[in-house]
Each structure stands twice: as C-alpha cells, then as structure tokens.
Write a structure and sequence with these properties.
A: alpha/beta; four-stranded mixed sheet; 6 strands; 65% helix; B: alpha/beta; 2 domains; four-stranded antiparallel sheet
C-alpha cells in the first residue's frame, strides 16, 4: 500500500510540475469557451459567410408581386416575362423564380426556380416559405381579414413545470436548466475519462519503451505500479477540477460584485418597496435562481465525483491494459476501438435519446450498464425524483463498483504479462491467455 | 554449509517454448557467481524468477533456506540488461525514488545516494535531468539505483555494456568491494575475460538446460588438456617427441605445442628441448573460459 502511495506521488508530482499542466489548466477553459463561443456564434448567425442573393421573380399571376419580402439573405427583384427569354439573366441574378399562370385551385401553386448552381436545401426552403406567406397574405386580403384581426387571434402559452415531492410541496423545475446541467456534467465526465485515460495509456507505453518497467517490477508488484499510475493521474485530474471550480467561483463572485450589486435591489430597498405597497419585481434571473435552488447540489456534486472516479477507474484500467500490450502508441488502434466505442455511444445517446425521455427504458438500462452509466447517469440525474428513484442510483453505483473491481483485476493480469513482452504484436487471443498465466 | 541461494529443478514454459528445463544451481554466500549462456538460453527468465517478476512452473528457489516470498524483494538489487530511467526526472530524485521503492527511508536514501555519487564523481550532476547525462553516466546512475538499498543479493545482467574501459574497471572494483562487504553477486555476461577476472563460481545454461556449474578453478581444471606450449629460437633436430603443432611467431621465434602424458612432469619436455635450442618461455595450456564456453555451446548444438 505504501508503495502504491509512493508511485502515486511520483506520477502526480511529475505531471503537476510540468509547464504544460499549468498551461492546460489555465488555457483549457479559455479554449473551450472560445470553441463554444465560435460554434454558438456560427449557429446563431446562420447568414454568416453567405452572400446576399439577387433573385429575379417573374410572376405571371400577379399574386406574389410585392408580397415577398427581401431578407438579409435574399433580395427579390420583380421583373417582367422578358427576363425568362434573356440568356444573360442568369449571369445577372443568382436565379430566376418563375411562377406560371396556373390552373390555380387556390391551394397549390407550382413554380420553377432556375439557377446555374445546385440550389441548396436552405435556399429552397426559404423560397417555399416566402411564397407560402405571400400566398396567405394574398388570400387574407381576398377574404377581407385585416392584420389586426389576425394578430388578436394569435395566442401564446407559457407552461410552468412543477415537480411535486413526497410532502406534496411543489417546486419549480426548469426543464431547460436540467437539460443544460445534465449535458454539461455528462460532457465533463466523457472528456475527463478520455483525457486522463489516454494519459494512463501513454504513461504505461512510455515506461515500457524506456524499459523502466523491469527495474520497477523487481521492487513492486506490477499491480501496484498500475494502480499507482492510475491513482496519480486521477489526482492530477481532481487537482485540475478543483482549480477550475475555485477559479470560476472567484470569477462569478467578481462579476456579481461588480455588476449585480448596483442593479439588483438590496434588502433595504426591497423593504422600502414592500412597505410602500409596491410589487417586488422578479426578474428572469431570479426565476432561474429559484429553480437553481430547487436542485440538490450536494447530491449532484457527490454523484458527479463518484461517477467521475468510478468511470475513470474502470476505463483507465482498460487503457493501462492496452498500453501494456503494445510497443508504441501507433499500435494501440486495434485495442482502442472496443474501449472507446461504449463511451462515445453513451455520450451520443445522452444528448438525444436519454434527454428526450430521461426516465425511459433505454435511459434506464444505459444508466445501469457500467461502461455507459457514468455518462448517462449524469444526464438523468437532474430528472430523477428522489427519494423514489434512489434505488436506481444505488443499483447503478453498486454495478459500477463491482465492474471496476473486476476490470482492474483483469487489466492487472494483462498488464503484468504485457509490460514485459517486447517485439511481438499481441492479439486478442494472447491477451486472453495472459489472464491465466501464473 | 547451506548455500545462500538455492535453485532446484526450476522449469518454466512459455506458450510454445520451454525456457527453463529443470535447472538447478546453488550460489554460496559472499561470492560472485557468473551466470553464462548464449543468447536465448534462458538466463533472463531465471533471473526474473529469482526477482519474483515471474513465477516458476515447477521447482523452487530458496534464499537462505527460505522459499522466495515478497519480503525478499527488498534484499535483492537487480540491474536488468535493458536499462531504463525516467528521462525527465532529476538524478537525485530518481535515485531516492528507487531507494524508497525498496523500503529505504527518505533521509537515509539521500545520504547513501550522495555517497555513491561522490564515489562515482557525478555529484555535480545530481540536480540535472537524466536526459542531459551521457550514456556512461546514466549507467552509473542505474548501478547506484541497483545497490542503494544495500542488497544482500545483487543480480547484474550484462553490467558492463555501455561502459568504457575505465568505467568498466571502476564497476568491477565496486562489485568486488560489495562482495567483500558480504553481498552475494550473480552476474550474467557474454564477456568471458571478465568472468575469469572476478567470478568465484560459474554456472552455464544452454538451450534451457544447465550444462556447467562449479568454481572457476575447478571448471578450468576439469577442462585442462595437458598440453604445453614452448617458445624457442634455434634449429630443432634429433630425437625429441613429435610436436602436436608448430608455428612461426611474428617475432621470429617458433612455438611448439606438446602433449603431456598424465602425471608426466612438464620439465621432462622442457629440459629435452633446452639441450638443443634456446627457450624463451614455456607454459601449460589452460583453456580459457572463452574456449570452454564455445566448446560447450558447440557441443550441444552439434
């Protein structure tokens, strides 16, 4: 045990002391923020990088003329029918939309759009939508429905979701907040397992190619070496998480101190407001805050740490076994695939199937299966109603613990033989045999 | 007397290959034991079994009369043939780390490490990273990590590879010194001249089997062929025993080799010749470990 501690300490110190650790700890969140920032910016501004398209509209029916509004992406120019026969028209315009005189039954209109390019689905949809709105507008005018009348018909529904706990007390449950939180936690576990699991594998390969292994296993058991490495790297990961939590804590405090204090009414002002009989204004932020407080934070943090530790131990043991079976990182491919597959699978399903129905059958089983549960359970967690579903969490945890103990034992046996094997590329069959060596 | 290390009937089977076939050796305490054998004979496997890196399929190894158990590990110092150090780690940190893995307390480890670095005159490098050191210096560090915990049994696999003659001499001195201080040394090598120089006992494995064991003197004695080589100048004629071989040496002298009958004194032939020619030197032809090694390997292969 003492030796595992020694190895853990060395693995930890040698990694934390590196400049790259400090760099990644500070730059990591910035890079992620920038990455997501750019992605969100591109998604929100979907016209980004697209040119405004001039489109000639030849309307032989006279219905669409002046009823299709130009947008940031499209500029509609109404022309007469001569343009159809003009061969230069396609060089002047992106395309020509031609609406023939139809045997219009009033509900279907066929039109053609000619362009020199292959028309994208986006352009096609915009054109169809524009034409539909134009047609609707035309019809409303025909029926004599005014815009004000139509607006007064349109209604909006806002649904507040409440979670009723056992005592019958209702709490605000913000589905949006839960979704974002669940996905964030799942992504964090997914990324950490990958990042640090691969580090374990690299470390094993490094020791093997440096031939340090033989010196060390003459002093400690291979299992101790493997566990020391796995735990040391886990501590590096935890250190990184703690630094991030503390930094973001400071950041949030700084931001709220410098911005919110002035804008949010403080206790004294609130009292005055109440005394004067005025309604206390509840902002959107405060609404969000009330759903945030409905979350059981200690439970979420503890569960996150548990699944992070469990998932990491399970996967890093597998990564260590892979590292021991190969001579260089390029040989890892064939063994990596079956390990990474369940993890990727879990993450992809988390953001789709599991989110759609967090308490469905598939979500349930994925959160029980130990190779997927660390990721999937994180998505489900905010949606679980405690304490009725305590048993699900408990069962999933027990299964995870059982599996990682078994996996570490199996990986240890492969590792023990693998680290001393050189030159020969191992096959699955051989790995299986190694399990039973003396 | 009970041997320090006793290996009896040890066999080890890898998938399709029998690495050791009922090999037995006994190594006396405070002796240097040379473990010899061609490449692939099974030396490394035997060494790994002694180090408890792998286990024997059958047979047993006893250290001071006790079957090997994990408690013995801190009594053993092992220098593998394939050397390895953490390249990014500082020299002193690394030596202390390896010492602590062998249960040496941290402050003792530091003191002993400094003593050794002093002895090897590499003290100035203690705070450098290993990757900044020359290969010879890295080998010295590796040697220090092997013996820092004052092991009772030191196992050296090709300890001289990577050393220049000066450093080889240094390491030889250290090995003998450690033996004189009470350690038992097993060392495996292909350099037969170093075996003759420092080994007290030798054992040899070929094709997974033991082919030779004994003290260096006994082994050489049992392989002596009763031949005498005489170097002389001058014309040799008349009735003298026929030479087995005769050759002209580069310095102009002639060297003849004669067979001695058992119990026949060497001087009989020497004086027979001395009457006729001028003798420069004569010596009994004793086989070197090198010759014995090659003879044994070829015998088995043939």
């Amino acid at each position: 045990m003492n030796k595992i501690l020694l190895i853990t300490r060395r693995e930890y110190i040698s990694r934390v002391k590196k400049k790259s650790f400090l760099l990644m700890t500070i730059l990591g969140p910035i890079l992620i923020a920038v990455f997501y920032g750019i992605m969100i910016y591109i998604v929100v501004n979907d016209e980004l990088g697209q040119e405004k398209k001039d489109i000639a509209v030849v309307d032989r029916q006279g219905i669409f003329k002046e009823r299709m509004e130009s947008t940031d992406l499209m500029n509609f120019i109404y022309s007469d029918s001569t343009i159809s026969s003009d061969p230069t028209s396609l060089t002047k315009f992106y395309g020509v939309l031609e609406i023939p005189v139809s045997k219009n039954d009033g509900n279907t209109v066929s039109a053609s759009f000619r362009s020199r390019e292959n028309v994208s689905i986006q352009v096609k949809e915009i054109l169809e939508r524009k034409m539909e709105t134009a047609l609707e507008k035309y019809k409303m005018e025909q029926f004599g429905i005014s815009k004000t009348l139509l607006d007064s018909v349109k209604s909006e529904v806002k649904l507040q979701t409440l979670k009723i706990d056992q005592t019958g007390e209702a709490k605000d449950s913000s589905t949006e907040l839960y979704t974002v939180l669940g996905l964030f936690l799942a992504a964090a576990i997914y990324i950490f397992i990958f990042l640090y699991g691969v580090q374990v594998m690299r470390g094993v390969i490094e020791e093997k190619t440096n031939r340090i292994v033989e010196v060390i296993v003459s002093s400690v058991k291979p299992f101790q070496l493997m566990m020391g490495k796995v735990l040391g790297i886990a501590m590096v990961g935890l250190t990184q998480i703690i630094i991030w939590v503390v930094l973001s804590g400071i950041l949030i405090t700084v931001i709220s101190v410098s911005f919110s204090l002035d804008s949010l009414p403080d206790a004294e002002q609130l009292e005055q407001l109440e005394q004067s009989g005025q309604a206390v204004p509840i902002s959107g932020i405060q609404g969000l805050l009330s759903s945030v407080t409905s979350l059981n934070f200690p439970l979420i943090i503890l569960t996150f740490l548990f699944y992070f530790a469990g998932g990491y131990l399970l996967y890093s043991a597998l990564f260590a076994a892979v590292g021991s079976a190969v001579d260089s990182e390029t040989d890892t491919q064939q063994f990596m695939l079956p390990i990474t597959l369940p993890l990727v699978f879990a993450f992809v399903l988390s953001s789709s199937v599991v989110l759609r129905d967090p308490n469905g059958t598939l979500a349930f089983w994925l959160s029980m299966f130990p190779l997927t549960s660390p990721v999937v359970m994180m998505v489900r967690l905010p949606f679980l109603s405690m304490p009725e579903q305590n048993w699900e969490l408990g069962l999933s945890m027990v299964l995870l613990i059982g599996t990682f103990i078994l996996t570490i034992w199996l990986a240890g046996r492969i590792y023990r033989t693998g680290i001393l094997m050189y030159g020969k590329k191992a096959t699955y069959k051989e790995l299986f045999k190694w399990l039973f060596y003396r | 007397m009970q041997p320090f290390l006793e290996i009896s009937e040890v066999s080890k089977q890898y998938a399709t290959h029998l690495a050791l076939d009922k090999v037995s050796f006994s190594v006396p305490e405070s002796a240097i034991f040379g473990l010899l054998g061609p490449n692939g004979a099974g030396k490394t496997t035997l060494i790994r079994i002694i180090n408890q890196i792998t286990a024997a399929d059958t047979g047993e190894v006893k250290l001071k009369g006790e079957r090997l158990h994990p408690g013995h590990i801190s009594m053993i110092g092992y220098l593998p043939e394939e050397r390895g150090l953490y390249k990014k780690m500082k020299v002193l940190d690394q030596v202390i780390y390896f010492a602590r893995l062998k249960d040496v307390p941290a402050h003792d480890a530091k003191r002993i490490a400094n003593e050794w670095m002093e002895r090897f005159s590499i003290s100035d490098w203690r705070n450098k990273k290993v990757e900044e050191l020359s290969k010879g210096m890295q080998q010295k560090i590796q040697f220090i990590t092997t013996v820092i915990h004052k092991p009772k049994l030191i196992i050296l696999d090709e300890p001289f590879s990577g050393f220049d003659p000066v450093n080889t001499e240094l390491i030889k001195q250290e090995i003998t010194r450690l033996r004189d201080e009470g350690a038992t040394v097993i060392f495996s090598t292909h350099r037969m001249e170093s075996v003759e120089e420092i080994c007290d006992f030798v054992g040899m494995i070929n094709k997974s089997k033991k082919v030779l064991e004994g003290s260096v003197r006994d082994v050489k004695e049992s392989y002596r062929e009763n031949k005498i080589a005489i170097e002389f100048s001058g014309a040799l004629n008349g009735t003298i025993p026929a030479a087995l071989e005769s050759k002209k040496l580069p310095n102009g002298n002639i060297q003849n080799v004669y067979d001695l009958k058992p119990d026949e004194p060497m001087m009989n032939i020497v004086s027979a010749l001395a009457a006729k020619v001028h003798i420069h030197s004569f010596r009994e032809m004793v086989p070197s470990m090198h010759d014995i090694f090659i003879k044994l390997v070829q015998e088995k292969t043939a």
